[in-house]
Please model this.
Amino acid sequence: MPQNLSPIDKAKYAAAKRAVDYVEDGMKVGLGSGSTAAWMVKVLGEMVREEGLKIMGVATSARTSELARQVGIDVVPLDEARWLDLTIDGADEYDANLNLIKGGGGSLLQEKIVATASDQMIVIADAAKEVETLGAFPLPVEVIPFGWRTTQALIEETLVNLDVLGRSSSLRLNKDAPFVTDEGNHILDLSLRRIGNPRQLSLVLNQIPGVVENGLFLDICDVVVIGHADGSVETRDINQGRVEHSKIDLVESDNLFADIAD
Ligand code: 5RP
Model:
């Protein structure tokens, strides 16, 4: 086991390694974005190269698309694949009903479109992402650049009447400039602290002119695969009401780590 892998990376890897068990030959698979999803893409790439797995991948960001191609996955646009068997992605928070906050990496729009176009969405995460109530993680909202300050003011005004604890927001930056998403938009991060009614919040936010999409993923995720640094994994399937425990052999994965660690 390479010494430089942090416990959190081992946990993310364990979740990713378990989640690819859901991928079958011939499937169309949505490929998530972020550091946990990157492990999944690398593991899938290894299965393509070494085991001859045949899949069609649909990436949720330019970054994931580049990585997937690098590791040997056949990547096609969503409009070519049309409907996917499965999407595997990370999350910033998940609750007991597998409602999520996503968009910490800025890819929420493509992630939501791809996940919604899938028969099943599996979230891979470490245990620190589990929350009782969504909202400690700032909620990303993608807004068009035109008049973003006005959109921000409208959002903050609207939040006064909603069941949230905070209502300040900030424009996400990349160094000193506004962060720009793959779709050419900006992100406002909403410090809500606690979201009492995610469904209402999501509906209201998406009605504000200038808002493209928000990072609440409600009733989209079916399964969460939670990895731990010792290789143990818990898989919760909300539809089947099933919880399974398994263990990934991190020592046996040593070669893979050496091949694919950043
Ligand atoms: C990107 C996302 C990511 O899935 C989320 O931020 C989790 O990232 P990580 O796996 O790096 O913790 O939503 O838009």
User: Anything to note?
Assistant: The helical segments are 7-19, 35-51, 62-70, 78-81, 108-116, 148-159, 198-205, 254-260.
